[in-house]
Amino acid sequence: MAKENRAELQGKVLQLADLVAYQDGTVASRMIVNNRAGSITLFSFDEDEGLSEHTAPYDAVVTILDGECEVWVAGQTHQMKAGETIIFPANVPHALSGITRFKMSLTMIRE
């Protein structure tokens, strides 16, 4: 999403889950904030889609907006559903996979 399109969202009441649509057989994303301090990106995952294990150099806050998923962080598994949030610490391995179709918000904290 271009910076000028992200600016159109500022100062408005938003339903985050409505800002990214499901797409059959894949993952879709939409960045709604991006600056030096961090970013907020919305994702939709079709059933059985996910992100393989990886690390990030920054803390990340994930909030499930719709559906259910399974999350792995530092060797622990968590079942998550809409309304729940987890924090992935910087440099700690994590992954997630859909149990159902699901949507999430990812907030990366850079500073």
Write a structural description.
With 111 residues, the chain is mostly beta strands. The chain has one domain: Jelly Rolls, CATH 2.60.120. 5% of the residues lie in helices and 57% in strands. It contains one helix and seven strands, in the order H-E-E-E-E-E-E-E. Strands 1, 2, 3, 4, 5, 6 and 7 form a seven-stranded antiparallel sheet that branches. A hairpin with a 2-residue loop joins strand 4 and strand 5. The mean pLDDT is 93.
Low-confidence stretches: none
Sheet bearing the most strands, described? Answer: 7 strands, antiparallel
> Treating each run of at least 4 consecutive H or I residues as one helix, how many helices?
1
Task: Kindly name the structural category.
Answer: mainly beta
Instruction: Report the mean per-residue pLDDT as an integer.
Output: 93
What is the number of strand segments?
Answer: 7
